[in-house]
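Quick start: read one record
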Amino acid sequence: QVQLVESGGGLVQAGGSLRLSCVAPRSIFSLSAMAWYRQAPGKERELVAAITSGGITNYADSVKGRFTVSRDNAKNTLYLQMNSLKPEDTAVYYCNARHYSAWDYWGQGTQVTVSS
C-alpha cells in the first residue's frame, strides 16, 4: 500500500504563512507528477498547485502569487509554501502523486484553518 504523508497544517491568522510537506515513497516520487488539492466544507475538491517530474508548475488563479509548490527529489518530498493566507484558503489539503495511468495516489489530508 502506497502512502503519502502530509504534514504542516494548522491554525493561522489571515495574512500569515504555512508550509505543507508531503513525503512519498522513493520508488514513485521522482517519476510522479505531484500536486496539492484542497476541499472546503460543502465544496468539491479543487486543484491548488501542481509540479511535473521535470519541475514545471501550475497554479489555481486564486493562489497565484501567494503559494509556491516545489519538490525535493532527494528527500522524496513535495512542499507547498502558503503566504498571505486568507480565510477562504481554509480547507483540507491533499497531496497527490500521479504517473499517467500507472498510478494515482492520495494522502490522508491535512487541515488548514485561516482565521479572520
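The chain has one helix and eleven strands.
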